[in-house]
Design brief:
The chain has 164 residues and is mainly beta. It has one helix and 13 strands; from the N terminus they run ββαβββββββββββ. It is elongated.
């Protein structure tokens, strides 16, 4: 601002430019907050999801650790989800080489099993993918270590679908 000899203040062009730039910065922050990835208009679908999983090669006596209603947690203590009914147990599939050097499947004879099932999990679907619990990125073929208190296992996520 310019001050004249009589004490009156006048706006210079630079003053107007600075005020306009400040107003544009504030408007940009408001738009980013309202429409950004975490903003009011973001395409996030928060709710319950059915996350299909697979656990390979566990001993058969642990099959009751995968019963309906069992809650599993990540190593950091955050909830993974609650198991739903219908876990399927099959003999653990193993691969070995035949005489020609090709890999052929066989099944474990020592009582180990593979488990396939679903867990009801809370999370949100974002533009970047599914965020389990709102903070852990999860997709098909993601691997995690989870625990129920009775057992700690490594799981592989096979599918994610919105719960009905």
């Amino acid at each position: 601002m310019k001050t004249t000899a009589k004490g009156a203040k006048h706006f210079a062009a630079i003053d107007a430019l600075i005020i306009i730039l400040l107003m544009l910065c504030v408007a940009g922050i408001i738009v980013r907050t309202a429409m950004g990835s975490g903003g009011l208009f973001a395409t996030q679908d928060r709710g319950s999801y059915l996350v299909s999983y697979m656990v390979t090669g566990i001993r058969g006596e642990y099959s009751d650790c995968f019963s309906e209603g069992k809650e599993f947690y990540f190593e950091n203590g955050e909830a993974f989800g609650t198991l739903t009914d219908g876990a399927v147990f099959t003999p653990a599939r193993l691969y070995g080489e035949d005489a020609d050097g090709k890999y052929v499947p066989s099944y474990a004879a020592d009582g180990r099993v593979d488990v396939r099932g679903t867990a009801l999990c809370e999370g949100k679907m974002t533009d970047e993918g599914f965020m389990l619990g709102g903070s852990i990125y999860t997709a098909a073929n993601s691997r995690f270590t989870v625990s129920s208190g009775d057992i700690t296992v490594d799981i592989v996520i096979t599918d994610i679908a919105k719960a009905q």
